[in-house]
Amino acid sequence: MKKSINIDYWYENTLSNKVELWMILPEKVIKQSKKAKLVHKVPTGEMLGYFILQKNEKIHVNFDVDWYKPENHGISLTDEEKNTI
Predict the structure, then answer these.
(1) Which of 71, 70, 69, 51 lies closest to 61 in space, CA to CA?
(2) Tens digit of each residue's pLDDT, the chain (85 residues)
(3) Residue 19 host element (H or E)
(4) CA distance 67 to 9
(5) How far is residue 83's CA from residue 26's CA, in Å, rounded to a whole number?
(6) Strand, coil or helix: what is 6?
(7) Three-class SS of residue 5?
């Protein structure tokens, strides 16, 4: 049985007239209040979204992710990756 976790992310720009925000976009979105101005695929295969929030503008993203343990997937770091910080 897979366990899932619900992520409910809110952010409101209370800092300045404009905030530029980059964030990884989840695969299975339940709710997303604002569309990304730009979307870029990163080397991990995930999608990175670029948002611009004006003063007092909010973004809300709600999504589920499956819980897993990396050791169950046979994925481990190489020695080179372990030595790179």
Answers:
(1) 51
(2) 568 888 899 999 999 999 999 998 887 778 888 888 999 999 888 889 999 999 999 999 998 888 766 665 566 778 888 887 6
(3) strand 18-25
(4) 18
(5) 29
(6) strand
(7) strand
